[in-house]
Amino acid sequence: MTRVRRRSMRARHAMAFGVWLVGLGGLRPSPLAAQRASTPWRFMQEGSGWFGSTWLEGPRAPTVRSTAGGALGIGMRRAVREDTDAGVMLRAALQPISLHEAGATWREGTLREVDALGMLSMTSARRGRTRLHLEGLAGIAVLNGLGNLLPFRDAGTISPVGEVGLAVSRIPEESTRRQRELIGFARVGMVRLGTTPGYALITPGWVNRIIIGVRSGR
Amino acid sequence: MTPRHARSRWFAAARLALLAGVLAGCEAPTLARPVFAYDPTSLTGGQLYRWPSGSTVTVWFIQPNDLTRDVRLAVVNAMRAWNELPLFGEYRLEAAATLADANIVVLDQSTTLPVVPAAACPFDPRGSAGYTYFCPDGSRALRLAAAGGGTTRTSVVIRLDIGRTGSQDALNAVVAHEFGHALGIGGHSPNTQDVMFGVPTVSVPTSRDAQTLQYLLGERPRFTL
Q1: Less packed terminus of chain B by CB within 10 Å, N or C?
Q2: pTM as predicted
Q3: Shortest CB distance from B29 goes to which of A21, A56, A108?
Q4: Is A191 at the interface with chain B, CB within 8 A?
C-alpha cells in the first residue's frame, strides 16, 4: 500500500473517530422540545488570534507556516436544550505566511481564509459567576490569496475544517434587560489540505492551529 | 445539576479532550523536492550558488544598435519562462526600473560594459554566443562597480554575441540558457532538448531543467548572488 493511500485511509478513520467522539447527543429530543420553537436566535460576533499552523513540511522542502493570524466572525445561535446551544458562523481570517529552509526565512504574502461553520456549545454547571462551555465547530474553509505557492497552488479550493475547545463566560447580573454576554474561548482546530486532480506534488494532510479569542452576543 | 448530569458533562469533556488530542496529532501536508536531473555544479567545481530565498531579482537589458534581433523579446520570454518554475517563491524575476537598480544586466558584445568586472575574476567570454559573469567573494557575489565610478546593485552580467545567433529563436534560446546560469544552474545538461544543453535550441525550460532548478533552490548555497 502506498504512503499516500495509507494516509488517506488514516484520515478517513480519524474523521469517523471524530464523529463518534463528538456524538450527536446534544441534538437528542429533550423535554424542552416544545419550547424550542419559541427560543429566539441570538446574534454573536467573535474575534480571535490563530497560532502555530504548519501548512507544509518535508524532509527536503520548506516548512510553510503561519505563526500568527487573526479572524473576525459573525453568527447566530439558539438554545436546542437547556444546556446546549447550536449555531452557524461565517468567519474570515488573514494569516501571514513565512517559509523556512536551508537556514533561510522568507515571507510570501498573506493567506485569506473564509469559513462557514456549524457550532455546538454545551454549558457546564455554574461556578460562582462563571460558566464553562464545551464547544465544537465543523464546516468548510475556502483558501485563497497565495495561488502561486505550494501547497496552496495545488490544494482544492474548498477544505473541510473543524475545531473543539473550551469557553468561559461570565454570568450577567440579574436585570430586566438582556445584557451583553462575553465569552473567552480556546480551541484546537484543523483544516484538511488535499490536492486537486492533476496535481500530486504534495501529500495531503491536516493543518493544526490554536485559536484563542473572545465572543460576544446578547 | 444532578450527579447524572455532572457525569454526562465530564464524559463529554473527556471525549472533547480526546478529540483535541487526535486533531493535534494529525500530520501536516508534506512534500519532498525533486533530485536534480543533471548536475547543477559541473561548471563550478561543485560549488552551488543561487539568489537568497525570497529574492526579487531585477533585470536590465541594453538593446544594441543592431536591430535585427530583439533583445527585449528574448529577455521577457526568458523571465516569464523561468518565473514559472519556483514552487515556493524562492525568487521572482522583474524588470529593473533603472540600470542602477538592476541585479542582472543583459547586453550585447557591441555595447560598452556599464559595470567594471572584478579584478579577482577575469571577464572571459571566449567568443561564445552567451556568457554569464559573476564573481564570488566569500558567502556572496561581489556587487560590481559602475563604469563611471560608484557602486551598483549588479552582481551578474549576461553578455551576448548576437552576431553568433542565426535567428530570433536562437537568440531566445541563448538568453533563456544564460538566465538558467544566472539563477543558479552552474552546469550543462547532456540532453539536447533541455534549455541548459551546452548549445541550446529551445527557450522554454523542460521538466528536467525545472527539476534541477527546484532541487538547487532547496539546497544551502556555497555563496549567494
Answers
A1: N
A2: 0.79
A3: A56
A4: no
User: B83-130 pLDDT, tens per residue?
Assistant: 999 989 999 999 999 888 999 999 999 888 999 998 899 998 888 899
Contacts of A105 in chain B (CB under 8 A): 53
CATH 2.40.50 assigned to A40-217: no
- A204 at B interface, C-beta within 8 A: yes
CA–CA distance, B214 with B35 (Å, rounded to integer): 8
Average pLDDT, chain A: 81
* Cross-chain residue pair A164–B6, CB shorter than 8 Å: no
A54 CB near a chain B CB, below 8 Å?
yes
Closest by Cβ to A164, choosing from B20, B89, B219: B20
Chain B partners within 8 Å of A148 (Cβ): 89
User: CA-to-CA distance for B33 and A126, rounded, in angstroms?
Assistant: 54
**What is the rounded CA–CA span in Å between residue B147 and residue B124?**
18
CA-based nearest residue in chain B for residue A201: B31
Tens digit of each residue's pLDDT (9 = 90 or more) over A141-163: 999 888 888 888 877 778 999 99
User: Shortest CA distance to B29 belongs to which of A207, A96, A143, A99?
Assistant: A207
* H or E element, residue B37: none
| Residues of chain A with C-beta less than 8 angstroms from the C-beta of B9 | 122, 124-125, 134
The answer, yes or no, to whether residue B29 has pLDDT greater than 80, is: yes
B84 vs B112, B168, B204, CA distance in Å? 32, 22, 10
Q: What is the structure's pLDDT at B207?
A: 94
Range with top average pLDDT, A195-204, B68-77, B173-182: B173-182
Q: Report the complex ipTM.
A: 0.79
Contacts of A101 in chain B (CB under 8 A): 53, 88, 218
CB-count exposure of residue A20 (10 Å: 0-12, 13-18, 19+): exposed
CB atoms within 10 A of CB B176: 26
C-alpha cell, A6: 495509507
